[in-house]
Amino acid sequence: MPQKNMLSLHVPEPEVRPGGTPDFSNVPIPKAGSVPRPEVNVDPRAIRDLAYSIIRVLNREGEAVGPWAGTLTDEELLEGLRHMMTLRAFDARMQMAQRQGKTSFYMQHMGEEAVSCAFRKALLPGDMNFPTYRQAGLLIAGGYPMVEMMNQIYSNERDPLKGRQLPVMYASKEHGFFSISGNLTTQYIQAVGWAMASAIRNDTKIAVGWVGDGATAESDFHAALVFASTYKAPVVLNIVNNQWAISTFQGIARGGSGTFAARGLGFGIPALRVDGNDYLAVHAVAKWATERARRNLGPTLIEHVTYRVGAHSTSDDPSAYRPKEESAAWPLGDPVLRLKNHLIVRGLWSEERHKQAEAEILDTVIAAQKEAESHGTLHAGGKPSARDMFEGVYAEMPPHLRRQRQQAGV
Amino acid sequence: MPQKNMLSLHVPEPEVRPGGTPDFSNVPIPKAGSVPRPEVNVDPRAIRDLAYSIIRVLNREGEAVGPWAGTLTDEELLEGLRHMMTLRAFDARMQMAQRQGKTSFYMQHMGEEAVSCAFRKALLPGDMNFPTYRQAGLLIAGGYPMVEMMNQIYSNERDPLKGRQLPVMYASKEHGFFSISGNLTTQYIQAVGWAMASAIRNDTKIAVGWVGDGATAESDFHAALVFASTYKAPVVLNIVNNQWAISTFQGIARGGSGTFAARGLGFGIPALRVDGNDYLAVHAVAKWATERARRNLGPTLIEHVTYRVGAHSTSDDPSAYRPKEESAAWPLGDPVLRLKNHLIVRGLWSEERHKQAEAEILDTVIAAQKEAESHGTLHAGGKPSARDMFEGVYAEMPPHLRRQRQQAGV
Amino acid sequence: MPRKTMIEAIRDAMDVSMGKDDNVVVFGEDVGYFGGVFRCTQGLQQKYGVTRCFDAPISELGIVGAAIGMAAYGLRPCVEVQFADYVYPAYDQIVSEAARIRYRSNGEFTCPMVIRMPTGGGIFGGQTHSQSPEALFTHVSGLKVVVPSNPHDAKGLLIASIEDPDPVIFLEPKRLYNGPFDGHHDRPVTPWSKHPLGEVPDGHYSTPLGKAVIRRQGADVTILAYGTMVYVAEAAAEETGIDAEIIDLRTLLPLDLDAIVASVKKTGRCVVVHEATLTSGFGAELAALVQQHCFYELEAPIARVTGWDTPYPHAQEWDYFPGPARVGQALRETMEA
Amino acid sequence: MPRKTMIEAIRDAMDVSMGKDDNVVVFGEDVGYFGGVFRCTQGLQQKYGVTRCFDAPISELGIVGAAIGMAAYGLRPCVEVQFADYVYPAYDQIVSEAARIRYRSNGEFTCPMVIRMPTGGGIFGGQTHSQSPEALFTHVSGLKVVVPSNPHDAKGLLIASIEDPDPVIFLEPKRLYNGPFDGHHDRPVTPWSKHPLGEVPDGHYSTPLGKAVIRRQGADVTILAYGTMVYVAEAAAEETGIDAEIIDLRTLLPLDLDAIVASVKKTGRCVVVHEATLTSGFGAELAALVQQHCFYELEAPIARVTGWDTPYPHAQEWDYFPGPARVGQALRETMEA
Ligand SMILES: Cc1ncc(C[n+]2csc(CCOP(=O)(O)OP(=O)(O)O)c2C)c(N)n1
Ligand SMILES: Cc1ncc(C[n+]2csc(CCOP(=O)(O)OP(=O)(O)O)c2C)c(N)n1
Ligand SMILES: [Mg+2]
Ligand SMILES: [Mg+2]
């Protein structure tokens, strides 16, 4: 006999599971151009609504509308399209390389290309990103050589990380790309610390933190908001809400009636949600937030609303936990297509030029891949040495490691 | 030459330091009775304002006013006054006992008595608190024997915790008082887990978490809000904002333009601020939140706005970091005086009866102290054995501990 | 008797425990609907409902902290940390809370819970999918630490852990999930279906914590091993032809010291192997105990064969892994010493 | 030469370092305006301003995580964790991040930082103000671990740590802050002003990491100790009349193995002492190394005298603490073995 007033546990579930028909009609999508653009020095209390809306620029007709439009020149838009197409081609080739056994692991960006590619264009030399494994667009759009990325992915003899790291865990100081950690969210508070350091030294550089929707549940997320808000650190904190965290949907991390962006409100941090599949919107919001940071006005929290079209990684198969057709039903569309359409509407691009560009980009990626493979792949050809394994634990190798290296005979 | 646009680090500072004149005129204090009382099943989105206000019942004239008044009978109010007076007397004696070397350490509640004493009266047998070291009012108001508390403080031969724990780190399952941890905030997520367990078992019991303003910065705070919101756990999460965390003022943990309560909003958790020095307001809010939990409506976050009048602990001297007069300037007054005045205004109490009660309570406390001291104090008289030190690490003592106990010769 | 993989055996242990006791609940990242990234909890949500087996937010602190609260209530949570490499955010809750609640409250509150986590390398998982952090738990009074090496034990030990009144760290060598692995990464692995220890009785049985087992009788030297290294030790004994006695410790804390001492007193020599880094690894404790208790019987220094004192590298995985060649070398040196 | 307490020496080290290098910043809970609960940072905010020495929110994770970011930028943060017992929330940042950033990025990014924390018991601090977690750091490749035992070393080692290019865990035995403590809790403590090692040179000097020092020459047995236990060992040698050689390790990682081996080869006997719990304590590593490198010279089993394998109790503090009586007993047994 059930007790009166008995409690029960609520466990959030996505609306649809494999076999069901995807339905995002309950996801409120504000019209492009409808969200106001406040001054960057606005009182955070005045813009709490922005944490519950979605800033969008490109409308269904492919036009750029509203107060957030106009932050990019025609050339910049064309370049942006190329970056996203390059990242997509890069992903496809590396995904295949992993299937061919040339490396152990890969993680792609399908559907999320706009987020990192567009954000990168709001940054200046010297700024520092603290990325996750799904922001390679920061490197592509920042001009980091693809062949270096591939050398890392292949753990070959030219791998800048000497074979020590899992594929895609790039690091480049020059390109403002902090060493990716396999441990989720640790980098978020580090971004705040880096920004604090810049402020302590009266520098002009800013930091950018990155985290996924699922990983916002980790403790480092809280520490980052606490420190960013207390010290008004010049940092932009990005949340890439791609709806999924491996097999769990965003409701497991989000809960209740909040949004991920709204987590900033309790700290008095301006919080914005942006259409992450809209290159123009991401760029505009990135501009706004980075300007706030540069003007010493403090941190901004940005939730990029997007969708992870592919599997979590090459170790994952999403058909086990979500309908295959879900990505097609996703109401914010595909970032590459949307920017392409916009450029066509603007008369700056055509289907033909797009095809041509696709072919050119593929050639470039393949050329890079050939070069990288000439330096080896994980199980064949040139590779980092066992000696490299013992180096770099410390600046100077202490006696016990020297003994161990000797014992290993390398 | 300072660089253009150069950044600088913001380090929050309290308005006044020792030597200065305390001034709380910038602390907005809403009028008693002015904050509406929503239904407990309200949509959390509709009451976000409550996270930025202060619910108050007792006005300056000592009258109980507004929609949150009326949750307590006359007897209950009189009992509440006695609890707070008892806690204060208990604190004074134990503080003195520590000075006399009868124990190593003590932590008092001066100024914060209403919070735990009033909250306790909204709980039912079987409910479980996950307290910090500054909620002994839960035990006093719950009828836990004072002499047991003192036995623990003295680590004497009757110490229910066998001398293992630092003074004031009480634990009593029967009295719904979870074992206090010396590590801040760890108990907050445990409270959520306990509440989840109750919901999983379709039980009716609820959990209550407690944390200080400073300790909200810890990671466990975030984990608690994430889990509470995701699983709609039947838990009340209390933040006791007593303005200080040892030597740091609440601005170091709070930052920005937020309030501690507002941290709940991003999670869709109803968040209320209450006058923590107002016994009636604390009780009314506790009633509201516990009813939400009991009706399976999910978690509530409550910020109790109060002031730590005494030192952080017997190891602390606040005159080093805040003006001595600051507590007197605190605009929410003294909880004991305020309830006393209310009862006098109501004709239920008088100065004379108050004095008499004070004397009676002191006698009771002294009698308990005598009894406790007959069982020993930290450095004199009966004490737990060295054998007790080896017990209870595991349910059954494993061989290595048996060997060690033998080696110790006990 | 049915043969099961280690994954199936572990799943079976949870299934049996959940069936037997309503207080057993299972949760963690991706463990609910999906059944865990290694599929150890597959089907449990379907069978026992979403409130007995569910997905958790990505917060190891939250998972363990909530489990502690549940255990205090009276449940017996068995939670999964997706990889042992990700346990550190929960370390405070484990060390300061789970391990000490019984002691500090004098038994008013207790913490019967299991934290399962895949451990060890050999899958090209790089520094964050390969670690063996057992020694970070064996130093903590109040915890128990278990490392099964085969499906039969995995099921029995996991049931015993779930039924244990105290918190248990349950480390699952992921390289063993599908078959015993002897460190010869270039040879095909035997599946559990072909290995006698893949025989897993149906239903409830439990393997006591704190008891080691001799996997190979031998006269010349004692090898102390656990998890994957048991098979590496077997291969090394085979290949060197040295008559090694191999002890599978199974539980590191509390340790079966008697079994260890009896063997080393017999053989007079001892080699300790583990995959974790050398310095302050659990091998240090084993060596310290063995020299203390078998000093007069020891004919050679105790050797430790372990992972090197570096993070677990990606490309150099097989240079890092303490395979049969290195163990064999240590055996020979120990015999010649 | 001026005499200083350990607190003053530590403060002096930070003062000298901040004066010499603008990149040195100091922060932590209560360390800014107030100067730290043990007053180690008193006056630094006044002298160097609020952006060089400041109060932090109560988040050890945040303190260490932010410091890592600062170190990556190019600063040299020296942060305080209020008690070593409270370091666990930062454990993931230390183990997974600080320790591995140089390695995993192949030097693109580095992490020169110091985490200072008071450690050890003897002040009736109960389980949460008494712990000695050094072994939880010595197992982590990429970290350095330092434990000074006196004001002179404390200053020199802290300066060396701040100038070190890699992350350093700097454990300050709080029972030594005001004077050497030999474990005789019922006798008055000599203040540092009366002890030769209280002599602390002004200005900049540094004591190299990785170098042990012999505190007492002896012929019969080697005692390996660090922090508070150095004085306990001295008292035990004195009281038993056994001619012990006492080595103060000072740095646990990297370890001065040469100094240890040379001494044990000379004396043929070894007693290891520390305050941390026994199992998997740093003494295990020491014993493992000593038996390995001095096997043929050892005339008796290596003894370990440590805290018991329980949480640090409040009332039974002096039953728990491995005082001179217990060390003396081990010395006698080792001599007679
Ligand atoms: C501390 C930690 N816990 C768990 C994992 C395992 N893990 C890797 S990615 C992932 C999901 C992350 O999801 P999200 O943050 O949404 O990022 P996305 O992959 O969608 O970009 C999990 C659980 C990890 N890497 N680190
Ligand atoms: C994990 C951890 N870090 C630091 C401390 C040291 N400490 C004890 S109380 C305290 C201040 C807490 O302030 P607050 O949360 O505001 O509670 P209050 O004392 O004011 O009630 C600190 C820093 C601790 N006990 N645990
Ligand atoms: Mg995601
Ligand atoms: Mg406080």
UniProtKB/TrEMBL annotation, chains A, B:
GO molecular function per UniProt: branched-chain 2-oxo acid dehydrogenase activity
Catalyzed reactions: N(6)-[(R)-lipoyl]-L-lysyl-[protein] + 3-methyl-2-oxobutanoate + H(+) = N(6)-[(R)-S(8)-2-methylpropanoyldihydrolipoyl]-L-lysyl-[protein] + CO2
InterPro entries with a match to the protein in the record: Alpha-ketoacid_DH_E1_comp (IPR050771), DH_E1 (IPR001017), Oxoisoval_DH_suAlpha_N_dom (IPR022593), THDP-binding (IPR029061)
Domain Dehydrogenase E1 component residue range list: 83-379
CDD domains in the record: TPP_E1_PDC_ADC_BCADC
Domain 2-oxoisovalerate dehydrogenase E1 alpha subunit N-terminal: residue ranges: 6-44
EC number: 1.2.4.4
Pfam families: E1_dh, OxoDH_E1alpha_N
Domain of life: Bacteria
CC cofactor: thiamine diphosphate
Region annotated Disordered, chain positions: 1-40
GO biological process assignments: branched-chain amino acid catabolic process
Alphabetically ordered keywords of this record: Oxidoreductase, Thiamine pyrophosphate
SUPFAM superfamilies: Thiamin diphosphate-binding fold (THDP-binding)
Role: The branched-chain alpha-keto dehydrogenase complex catalyzes the overall conversion of alpha-keto acids to acyl-CoA and CO(2). It contains multiple copies of three enzymatic components: branched-chain alpha-keto acid decarboxylase (E1), lipoamide acyltransferase (E2) and lipoamide dehydrogenase (E3).
Family listed: Belongs to the BCKDHA family.
Name of the molecule in the record: 2-oxoisovalerate dehydrogenase subunit alpha
TrEMBL record, chains C, D:
Listed Gene3D superfamilies: 3.40.50.920, 3.40.50.970
Cofactor: thiamine diphosphate
Pfam families: Transket_pyr (PF02779), Transketolase_C (PF02780)
Taxonomy, superkingdom: Bacteria
Keywords from the UniProt entry: Oxidoreductase
EC assignment: 1.2.4.4
SMART domains: Transket_pyr
Gene Ontology molecular function, alphabetical: branched-chain 2-oxo acid dehydrogenase activity
BP-aspect Gene Ontology terms: branched-chain amino acid catabolic process; response to nutrient
Residues annotated as domain Transketolase-like pyrimidine-binding: 4-179
Protein name, UniProt field: 3-methyl-2-oxobutanoate dehydrogenase (2-methylpropanoyl-transferring)
Organism listed in the record: Allomesorhizobium camelthorni
